[in-house]
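Hi all, long-time lurker, first post. I run a small reading group and we've been trying to get comfortable going from sequence to structure in the token notation. Rather than ask abstract questions, I figured I'd post a concrete chain and ask someone more experienced to write out its structure so we can walk through it together at our next meeting. Sequence below, copied exactly:
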Amino acid sequence: MIESHISLLLVVIPLLAAPVTALLPGVRLPWLTALLVSWVCFALAIWQFALVMDGSVISYELGGWAPPWGIEYRIDIVNAFVALIVAGMAAITLPYALRSVEQEIPKHQIPLFYSMFLLCMDGLLGITLTGDIFNLFVFLEISSLSSYTLISMGRQRRALTAAYQYLIMGTIGATFLLIGIGLIYAETGTLNMADLSNRLPAVFSHHTVHTAFAFIVVGVALKLAMFPLHLWLPNAYTYAPSAITVFLAATATKVAVYVMLRVVFTVFSTGFTSDTPTDDMFLLLGVLGVLVASFYAIYQGDAKRLLAYSSVAQIGYILLGIGFASALGVTAAVVHIFNHALMKGALFMAVGALVYRIGSSHITQFSGVGRQMPWTFGALVLGGLSLIGVPGTAGFISKWYLVLAAIEQQAWLIAAVILVGSLLAVVYVWKMVEVLYFRPASDTGETYREAPLSLLVPTWLLVIANIYFGLNADLTVGAATTAVQVLGGIPQ
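-- Answer (accepted) --
Happy to help. Here is the structure in token form:
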């Protein structure tokens, strides 16, 4: 019986738990409630993913109204895979959050923090599961509004500025998305994404459809921090509480990439995009994102901001995969959604552990601390190797498939950009390693103990996952290969 309601439960459980959590007393009880909810959702997401691994599709009709008239949750391996990432990262971030949140957030705000965390997770899960494009917009707003609140809870006053900047740009993106949805509804009379994919080809030549596509792509691009629409991301990641930086970096932009994949390859299909400069635009902006953001990362003095610009560069790699519009390219993009969640989650957790002990994320404050906190330092090094794409790590798998996709299309310049991006990653990862381990400790003589286990265990679980999925990529590549077939319209 539960099996037929998994997709609904994934949305309803955190939605109902969020207001309850906000009313709970103390510090530990709200955290425990959020933790239990996240673990339940993770278990349901695993179950859901197992049900669609063979390429089958789950359709859930809300209120008994048959699609396209009613709202449908339509789950295939693509969105089940992304939902698994969201639920999994929430389940591993909340144990990490216990100590860091107690240090970074005023006691009276902690129940609200966990309530907003559940709402953010709920919105992201809803985006991935719904088959209705307006419902997608609603869930996008739920996740965005809760994200603004969570970012503003950072301990520096600049967190308010970062949240406000994100609010302004996020609102612009949401407006663009809503205008695009309204235009395609005016042309087709439906909001169901599967129905849209059947009805849109008949009106592809209409200027309204082209305008709608442009508005939707720009709106989603703002949400996924696609270069040059990424300006909200560095401040948001830098000044948000450490646990929120981890969660948003691992999930929010990945869910936005999923929306882009769904819009480009399922709703509009390559039959439409091949007649527009969309693919070339993704390739150009992907190249610029990889190079420009990587150069910016090199010159950052704050570790969280450095990793934030690195995230913009990694989004550039995903855009390259989408821009190739080939089976290999999209496979690389889907694999990198998963792998980047692992590597950036591990890196931000390691930096968060340093912030917990030192009280600052500025790189100059890290001098010699790597020798005093060897487990934290080791996690940062291994996460950095995965970010670079060293063989034996998850990051290598993504870049290998991207290079293969570039070679398949004889795009030698783009293959070179991928390699140059990895070399630039060596520079900014080494910048942190050099300060942490090879520079002498601070003149003050202050020593730091290793981070507590509640921070180290989640961090090392992600580090181990980076290595495991770098040595055994059957699950990720298999899921991505099936996802390419399900998305439809991609040349095999």
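A couple of things your group might point at:
The beta strands are 58-61, 72-75.
The chain has a mean pLDDT of 86.
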